[in-house]
C-alpha cells in the first residue's frame, strides 16, 4: 500500500469514531457564541463555512480512496471464490469452458494495487 493509502486508512478509522463526532459538535458549540467576538455576521458565517468546506473536501477524497480499495478487495475475493468453484466443477475442466463461464459470470480481471 502506498503512503496515501495508509494515511487514508488511518484517517478513516480515526474520523469514524464517536469521539471525532463529539469533537465536531464541540467545535460548532464553540463557534456559535463566537458571534459575540466577531460581531460581523458575514465573517462569523464565513469562518464556519470555510472550515467545514475544507474538512469535507479532504474527507471525501479519503473516503473515496478507501471505498475504491474496498471494492477492489471484494472483487478479488469474489473472483477467488468463482475460481475455486470452477476448480470443483467437473464440466469446467477445459479452458474453453472455464473462459466461457468466467465471461458469463462476469469475472473481472484487474491487477491489485
Automatic annotation (TrEMBL):
InterPro entries: Iron_permease_Fet4. The keyword Transmembrane helix applies. This is Low affinity iron permease. It comes from the Bacteria. One of its GO terms (biological process) is transmembrane transport. Keywords: Membrane, Transmembrane, Transmembrane helix. The chain crosses the membrane at residues 20-38, 44-63. It comes from Mycolicibacterium fallax.
Amino acid at each position: 500500500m502506498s503512503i496515501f493509502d495508509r494515511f487514508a486508512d488511518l484517517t478513516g478509522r480515526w474520523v469514524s469514531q464517536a469521539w471525532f463526532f463529539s469533537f465536531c459538535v464541540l467545535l460548532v458549540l464553540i463557534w456559535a457564541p463566537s458571534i459575540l467576538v466577531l460581531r460581523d455576521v458575514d465573517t462569523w458565517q464565513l469562518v464556519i463555512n470555510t472550515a467545514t468546506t475544507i474538512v469535507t473536501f479532504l474527507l471525501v477524497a479519503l473516503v473515496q480512496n478507501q471505498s475504491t480499495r474496498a471494492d477492489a478487495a471484494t472483487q478479488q475475493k469474489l473472483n477467488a471464490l468463482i475460481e475455486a468453484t470452477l476448480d470443483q466443477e467437473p464440466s469446467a475442466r477445459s479452458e474453453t469452458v472455464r473462459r466461457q463461464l468466467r465471461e458469463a459470470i462476469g469475472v473481472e480481471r484487474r491487477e491489485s494495487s
